[in-house]
Write a structure and sequence with these properties.
CATH topology of the largest domain: Rossmann fold
Largest sheet: 7 strands, mixed
Radius of gyration: 19 Å
Number of strands: 14
Number of domains: 2
CATH architecture of the largest domain: 3-Layer(aba) Sandwich
Order of helices and strands: EHEEHEHEEEHEHEHEEHHEHEE
Number of helices: 9
Structural class: alpha/beta
Distance between the termini: 51 Å
Shape: globular
Length: 286
């Protein structure tokens, strides 16, 4: 296992969500909140794998541009299974009205879900998430509010595959999960075996899908900055009146992001909010 580069920040105002979004955009592997060393100013650690991108390197060298935070320290830390303690202390998490997500290893649990919930095993082994983030929960809630029986679904930025699994449980007959990170596709494949669910997985961008392929619903739980260049390609895979769930956006980004989607023919139908995060259900104009 390679060593990691750790950036230590002191939060100087209440815009932690903006800093978190910026760090995910820059490609952090994961974040860790630690106790404050100054009264009222908590700290946040962000981990990266060297070699760093030029964008990250430039931010470090300038020590400026970090929203609501001060960069205090940059250091190398030895590789470790950072999520081992998290898994040990974790308990299953209810998501939406129908799902229970267990982030522990299969041998660490014998969870029997409540009668009305479906158990999904998503071990916390990587930075791809287990469904605990508000953006994933909001996407699931929107999906539960619409019939997916017989639907063809595209999950962009599938990560661990959790939204692809939810779509299959909700009745979708064809689900394709796409992720630009090959490690994510491998993690999703392992979770397919654990959950006995089989979406088709693709390592790459949506542009590697056939242009003639059509989906009834696209799930886009990706930060706007990371997906902006591919929005047109995603919309092109939807037929008239095809639908899209966009999540992973801060509420303050909603206006600009939805205007971009409107320019591509997508119309907002409904939305949900949790904290500073938002998810929207969109429909392609006929």
């Amino acid at each position: 296992m390679a060593d990691y580069l750790c950036l230590r920040f002191t939060l100087t105002d209440e815009s932690e969500e903006r800093l978190v979004a910026e760090l995910w955009t820059l490609g952090t592997l994961g974040l860790e909140a630690v106790p404050a060393t100054e009264p009222g100013k908590p700290q946040l650690l962000a981990y990266f794998v060297p070699p760093l991108s030029s964008e990250v390197q430039q931010c470090i060298e300038s020590s400026a541009g970090w929203p609501g935070a001060r960069l205090d320290k940059v250091e190398m830390v030895p590789a470790a299974d950072w999520l081992a303690e998290y898994r040990r202390q974790s308990r299953p998490l209810a998501i939406g009205q129908r799902f229970l997500v267990d982030p522990r290893e299969p041998e660490e649990t014998s969870t029997e879900p409540p009668f009305e919930r479906v158990l999904l095993q998503i071990p916390a082994r990587s930075a791809f998430g287990t469904g605990s983030h508000e953006s994933t929960q909001l996407a699931v809630e929107l999906m539960e509010g619409r019939s997916l029986e017989g639907a063809r679904v595209l999950d962009v930025g599938t990560g661990t595959g959790i939204l692809a699994f939810v779509a299959l449980v909700l009745g979708a007959t064809e689900v394709v999960g796409v992720d630009i990170d090959p490690a994510a596709a491998l993690a999703a494949l392992e979770n397919c075996h654990l959950n006995r669910l089989a979406p088709r997985l693709v390592a790459g961008t949506v542009e590697c899908l056939r242009s003639t392929q059509q989906f009834d619903l696209a799930l886009v739980n990706v930060l706007p900055e990371r997906i902006r260049d591919f929005l047109e390609s995603i919309v092109a895979l939807l037929p008239p009146e095809g639908e899209m769930v966009v999540s992973g956006l801060l509420a303050e980004q909603r206006g600009a992001y939805l205007r971009e989607l409107a320019d591509l023919g997508m119309v907002e139908k409904r939305s949900r909010l949790a904290g500073d995060w938002m998810a929207c259900w969109m429909e392609k104009a006929a």
